[in-house]
């Protein structure tokens, strides 16, 4: 099958479908199994498309926003999205481009993860009405298969020779890392997902990350053997202008669920976008008109900071809702202007932590400005940590009630970009 690499905004021929044109213009297309065939399909009427997410953690992260924004645009342009939450495939874990096997999860943990992921997804796609998005769990069909039945019906449709050619498998073997039979079968399960969705919901398009190319192609080919014309589309790998993989903070992944990263922490991540990435991220992660994106992308100096605030507020609105976005903007304006007139602290900790003897290093880790006490120590010793606008260079410093400002609050900053107002209650 031919792999079509597509440069954002520059299709090879004039497109018939508005949906594919918009996805290209926004930079959300990396590869496609057959661009012309998909363009025709999208131009002929409503198309049902799906993106799948394994429940290997209690929240999706910012890297998942690329396929989710693709599904969101498809829905806005008249098509129907299906979001598959992998209760079945999460029991194995996708080995794509990993050097080791994912830890095996118990079904109870997978179910709990699906419940929290569902709440984030429901904000990103419209679930209402007869044509609303569908949320399905692939355990519905994968858990029903018996081993010999599965091998007979589907194992005969795949060859090891073909599966060995995919980059996701080759990278693991080239690194001389073990690849279990369990993991090797994952791409078969994802292909079966696509065929099942085609049969149950007339789904003809799968959207995924660029690391999912081999898995998607397997599903398209399995559908062809069943007499179906299916399509695959991948979104680009999320990187910064420097080429680095994007989506991490000092404390780890940029989570979409508010229990794992506060809406303000999420807003601040986007507010701290590098200058060279502002235009790209406005195009990918907001729904602003392209002309407005281009205008904001051309701003310089202090004006570019305003574009960053617009970016942060727009993305936070999509992920957390307009009220949380407005509050985060107010908090950000107050913190970055040196004011303390916030409606709410950006982070909250129990007042008892002070009585127990809260260390400065623990505090820096607790608010997500460092991933470990060791990293926090290096920040402190380097003069990068401030309490109430005063540099603190002693890593043994303890925080007490005497450090608190009015309303039991404490201003904490690391460098110029990461700021927090911690409330104790």
Automatic annotation (TrEMBL):
<dbReference type="GO" id="GO:0005829">
    <property type="term" value="C:cytosol"/>
</dbReference>
<dbReference type="GO" id="GO:0005524">
    <property type="term" value="F:ATP binding"/>
</dbReference>
<dbReference type="GO" id="GO:0006979">
    <property type="term" value="P:response to oxidative stress"/>
</dbReference>
<dbReference type="InterPro" id="IPR014729">
    <property type="entry name" value="Rossmann-like_a/b/a_fold"/>
</dbReference>
<feature type="binding site">
    <location>
        <position position="248"/>
    </location>
    <ligand>
        <name>ATP</name>
    </ligand>
</feature>
<feature type="short sequence motif" description="'KMSKS' region">
    <location>
        <begin position="245"/>
        <end position="249"/>
    </location>
</feature>
<keyword id="KW-0963">Cytoplasm</keyword>
<dbReference type="GO" id="GO:0003723">
    <property type="term" value="F:RNA binding"/>
</dbReference>
<dbReference type="InterPro" id="IPR002307">
    <property type="entry name" value="Tyr-tRNA-ligase"/>
</dbReference>
<comment type="function">
    <text>Catalyzes the attachment of tyrosine to tRNA(Tyr) in a two-step reaction: tyrosine is first activated by ATP to form Tyr-AMP and then transferred to the acceptor end of tRNA(Tyr).</text>
</comment>
<keyword id="KW-0030">Aminoacyl-tRNA synthetase</keyword>
<keyword id="KW-0067">ATP-binding</keyword>
<comment type="subunit">
    <text>Homodimer.</text>
</comment>
<dbReference type="GO" id="GO:0006437">
    <property type="term" value="P:tyrosyl-tRNA aminoacylation"/>
</dbReference>
<dbReference type="InterPro" id="IPR002016">
    <property type="entry name" value="Haem_peroxidase"/>
</dbReference>
<feature type="binding site">
    <location>
        <position position="190"/>
    </location>
    <ligand>
        <name>L-tyrosine</name>
    </ligand>
</feature>
<feature type="short sequence motif" description="'HIGH' region">
    <location>
        <begin position="55"/>
        <end position="64"/>
    </location>
</feature>
<dbReference type="GO" id="GO:0020037">
    <property type="term" value="F:heme binding"/>
</dbReference>
<feature type="binding site">
    <location>
        <position position="186"/>
    </location>
    <ligand>
        <name>L-tyrosine</name>
    </ligand>
</feature>
<dbReference type="Pfam" id="PF01479">
    <property type="entry name" value="S4"/>
</dbReference>
<dbReference type="GO" id="GO:0004601">
    <property type="term" value="F:peroxidase activity"/>
</dbReference>
<protein>
    <recommendedName>
        <fullName>Tyrosine--tRNA ligase</fullName>
        <ecNumber>6.1.1.1</ecNumber>
    </recommendedName>
</protein>
<dbReference type="GO" id="GO:0004831">
    <property type="term" value="F:tyrosine-tRNA ligase activity"/>
</dbReference>
<keyword id="KW-0436">Ligase</keyword>
<dbReference type="Pfam" id="PF00579">
    <property type="entry name" value="tRNA-synt_1b"/>
</dbReference>
<comment type="similarity">
    <text>Belongs to the class-I aminoacyl-tRNA synthetase family. TyrS type 1 subfamily.</text>
</comment>
<feature type="domain" description="Plant heme peroxidase family profile">
    <location>
        <begin position="127"/>
        <end position="228"/>
    </location>
</feature>
<dbReference type="InterPro" id="IPR002305">
    <property type="entry name" value="aa-tRNA-synth_Ic"/>
</dbReference>
<dbReference type="InterPro" id="IPR002942">
    <property type="entry name" value="S4_RNA-bd"/>
</dbReference>
<dbReference type="InterPro" id="IPR024107">
    <property type="entry name" value="Tyr-tRNA-ligase_bac_1"/>
</dbReference>
<dbReference type="InterPro" id="IPR024088">
    <property type="entry name" value="Tyr-tRNA-ligase_bac-type"/>
</dbReference>
<keyword id="KW-0694">RNA-binding</keyword>
<keyword id="KW-0648">Protein biosynthesis</keyword>
<feature type="binding site">
    <location>
        <position position="50"/>
    </location>
    <ligand>
        <name>L-tyrosine</name>
    </ligand>
</feature>
<keyword id="KW-0547">Nucleotide-binding</keyword>
<dbReference type="InterPro" id="IPR036986">
    <property type="entry name" value="S4_RNA-bd_sf"/>
</dbReference>
């Amino acid at each position: 099958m031919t792999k079509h690499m597509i440069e954002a905004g520059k299709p090879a021929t004039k497109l018939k479908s508005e949906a594919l044109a918009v996805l290209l213009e926004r930079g959300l297309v990396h590869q496609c199994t057959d661009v012309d065939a998909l363009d025709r399909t999208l131009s002929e009427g409503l198309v049902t498309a799906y993106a799948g997410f394994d429940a290997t953690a209690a929240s999706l992260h910012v890297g998942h926003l690329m396929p989710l924004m693709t599904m969101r645009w498809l829905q806005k342009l008249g098509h129907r999205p299906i979001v598959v939450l992998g209760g079945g495939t999460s029991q194995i874990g996708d080995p794509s481009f990993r050097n080791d096997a994912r830890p095996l999860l118990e079904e109870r943990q997978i179910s709990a993860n699906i419940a929290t992921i569902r709440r984030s997804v429901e904000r990103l796609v419209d679930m209402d009405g007869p044509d609303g998005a569908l949320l399905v769990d692939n355990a519905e069909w994968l858990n029903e298969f018996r081993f010999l039945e599965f091998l007979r019906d589907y194992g005969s449709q795949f060859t090891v020779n073909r599966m060995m050619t995919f980059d996701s498998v080759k990278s693991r073997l080239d690194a001389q890392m073990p690849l279990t039979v369990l993991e090797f079968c994952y791409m078969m399960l994802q292909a079966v997902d696509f065929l099942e969705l085609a049969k149950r919901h007339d789904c003809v398009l799968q959207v995924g990350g660029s690391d999912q190319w081999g898995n998607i192609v397997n599903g398209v080919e399995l559908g062809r053997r069943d007499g179906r014309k299916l399509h695959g589309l991948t979104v680009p790998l999320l990187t910064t202008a420097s080429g680095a993989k994007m989506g991490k903070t000092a404390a780890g992944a940029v989570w979409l669920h508010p229990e794992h990263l506060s809406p303000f922490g999420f807003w601040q991540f986007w507010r701290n976008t590098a200058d060279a990435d502002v235009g790209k991220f406005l195009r990918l992660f907001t729904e602003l008109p392209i002309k407005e994106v281009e205008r904001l992308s051309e701003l310089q100096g202090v004006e570019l900071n305003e574009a960053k605030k617009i970016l942060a507020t727009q993305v936070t609105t999509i992920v957390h809702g307009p009220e949380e976005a407005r509050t985060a903007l107010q908090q950000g304006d107050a913190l970055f202007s040196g004011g303390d007139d916030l409606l709410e602290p950006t982070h909250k900790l129990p007042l008892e932590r002070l009585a127990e003897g809260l260390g400065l290093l623990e505090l820096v880790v607790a608010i997500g400005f460092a991933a470990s006490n060791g990293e926090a120590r290096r920040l402190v010793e380097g003069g990068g940590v401030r309490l109430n606008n005063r540099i603190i260079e002693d890593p043994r410093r303890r925080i007490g009630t005497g450090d608190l400002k009015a309303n039991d609050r404490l201003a904490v900053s690391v460098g110029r970009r990461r700021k927090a107002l911690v409330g104790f209650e």
